[in-house]
Amino acid sequence: MTTHTQSLPLILIGVALLAACASPPAPHGEVRGAGASSREMGQSDTNRMTTLAMRANLDALYLLMDKLYRRNPAEWKKTAASREEAVRRVREAVELRQAWPELQGKRDIAAMAAALDAGFKGDRVAAFIAATADMIIVAHGNKIEFFLIDGLDAQHLYNAARNVEIGAWILSSRRTANGAPLLLSDEIGSDVRNLSFEREFGKIVGRLDLMAQVSTEKYRRAGISYVQNLLGGSFLQFLPVR
Hints:
By secondary structure, the protein is mostly helical. 61% of the residues lie in helices and 2% in strands.
C-alpha cells in the first residue's frame, strides 16, 4: 500500500507531461500573401520575388525603427511630438525617396556613415533607418518595385548585405565621446536576453544575399524556362483516343 501511494505522484507527473506533449502548439501566426494587382502582369517571377523581398526589408527596417525608438525615446523627441509621428515621417521620406534633412543631403553609404558618427547630434534612429533604407534601394537600381525592363546587379545586392552587417555591428559596438552606446538595442544580462534586433538585421541580410544569388542565375533560368516551354509544347500534350 505504501509503495503504491509513493508512486502515485510520479504517475500523475507522467500523465501531465504526456498531456502537455499532446496539446496543440501555441499559434505563431500564418503566412499571408500580398494582394493581387494588375501591375503583376508586367513582372516576371524574379521581378515579383524581388519586389516582395524589398517590401519585406523595408518593413523590417520600420520594425527596427519602432523598437529602437522604444528603447531610445530621447531620439524621437528631437524631431517629433510623438513616436508615431517620428515613425511616419521616416516612412514617408523612404517611400518618396526623399533625403533625410538631418543628413544634410548625404545619401547611400555616406548617409549611413554620418548617422553612425559618434558626434552626430540629431535623431540617430531616424537618420540610421533612413540611410540604411536608401542604401538598400540604391543597390536595387533606385527602385522599390520591379518590372520586366528592370535589371539587378548581383554584386551591388551582395555589397548591400555586407553594409547592413557592418551597420549593425557599428551600432552595437561604437561608443559616443562619453562612453555611451550610440543606441540601445540588443541586451544580454544575467536576467535578460534580448537579441531581437540582431535577428531582424539577420533577416534583411539573408534576403539580400538570396536575391544576389538569384540575380546571378537570371539569364540562365530564362533560357531554361524557354527550353522547358518548348519541350512542354511538343511532348506534354494529350493524344487523341478516337
